[in-house]
Amino acid sequence: MLTTTVADRQRVFIDDARVECAVEAFRCSDREHRSRTLAWVVMPDHVHWLMQLQNGNISRCMAAFKSRSARALNLHRASQGALWQRGFYDHCIRSDESLLKQANYLIENPVRAGLTTKVGEYPYCWTRWPAEADESADVSPPDQRSDVE
Fold first, then answer.
1. Averaged over 60-79, what is the pLDDT?
2. pLDDT higher than 60, residue 139
3. In a designed cystine with 44, which of 11, 96, 104, 144 is the match (CB 3.0 to 4.6 A)?
4. To the nearest whole percent, how much of the chain has pLDDT over 70?
5. Stretch 99-103: mean pLDDT, rounded?
C-alpha cells in the first residue's frame, strides 16, 4: 500500500482529465510489469495505490509513477515543476485478510474525507474486489480467482 502527497497539499486532482494523468501512470506501471494494481484512489491532494510489486523495487516503481503522472499533468495544465512531495509512505501487507481490509479502507477514504456520503459514489477510485461483498461473491485475492487474467 503506497501513499504519496501533492506538493504543498495543493488540490490538483479536481477533474476527470487531471485524475486520468495519475490513473494512466498506474496503468503504465502495470503494462511495464513493474506492478500489479489491486486498488487505487486519487484524492484531490494525494493518492493511495494498493499494488503488488512485480519487478524492480518499490522506490523505482513509485519514482516512475510520480515522474509519468507529473509530466502528464504539467502538459495538461501547461505548467512545469514538481507535482509531488518528496518521498512516500509504504505499508507491506502480509495476509489476504489484511489485503482486503486495506482495499476497503482505501475505497472508503473519500467518505472519511467528506467528498461523498457512501462508498461507490466517488468516481476516482477503483478496486479489484466488490466494496460490500455478499456471501456468494468471490473476494479471494486476485491470484486465487479464476476470472482474473
1. 95
2. no
3. 11
4. 87
5. 91
Given a cut of 90, whether residue 131 has pLDDT beyond it is no
Contacts made by residues 68-72, CB under 8 angstroms, sequence distance 24+: 68/24, 68/25, 68/28, 68/29, 69/21, 69/22, 69/24, 69/25, 72/21, 72/24, 72/25
Q: How far is the first Cα of the chain from the last one, in angstroms, to the nearest whole number? A: 22
The C-alpha cell at 66 is 510520480
Q: Give one word for 8, left, alpha or beta, with left for phi > 0 and alpha for psi -120 to 50.
A: left
The cell for 33 is 510489469
To which residue does cell 518528496 refer? 86
CATH superfamily of 2-131: Transposase IS200-like (3.30.70.1290)
**For 64, what's the count of Cα atoms within 13 Å in the CB-facing half-sphere?**
20
pTM of the model: 0.84
